[in-house]
Amino acid sequence: MASNDDFIVIKAKENGVNVIGLTRGSDTRFHHSEKLDKGEVMIAQFTEHTSAVKIRGKAIIQTKHGEVETDS
């Protein structure tokens, strides 16, 4: 069961950072997509429908487990 208090913070370091939500279940699919511009921040929450988030572009990602920065 997913925890509704699990979330991540994404801060774009360039224009055009893509944040893509992926579904849970036996058939994983894209279900939501956002595009962030430099300096924009998005808070994404994991739910019973969202099991993963894919990030394309330069960004800083903060989670309860720490912070990571994308290479490209």
TrEMBL record:
Q: Which family does it belong to?
A: Belongs to the MtrB family.
Q: Which SUPFAM superfamilies match?
A: TRAP-like
Relate the protein's function as given in its record: Required for transcription attenuation control in the Trp operon. This trans-acting factor seems to recognize a 10 bases nucleotide sequence in the Trp leader transcript causing transcription termination. Binds the leader RNA only in presence of L-tryptophan.
Q: Which keywords does the record carry?
A: RNA-binding, Transcription, Transcription regulation
Q: What is this protein called?
A: Transcription attenuation protein MtrB
Which species is this record about?
A: Anaerobacillus isosaccharinicus
Gene3D superfamilies in UniProt: TRAP-like
Please name the HAMAP family in this protein's record. Answer: Trp_attenuator
The source's domain of life comes to Bacteria
User: What does the record list as GO biological process?
Assistant: DNA-templated transcription termination; regulation of DNA-templated transcription
Q: Where is the Tryptophan RNA-binding attenuator protein domain?
A: 4-71
* Record gene name: mtrB
Listed GO MF terms: RNA binding
Keyword set includes Signal: no
Subunit arrangement?
Answer: Oligomer of 11 identical subunits arranged in doughnut-like structure.
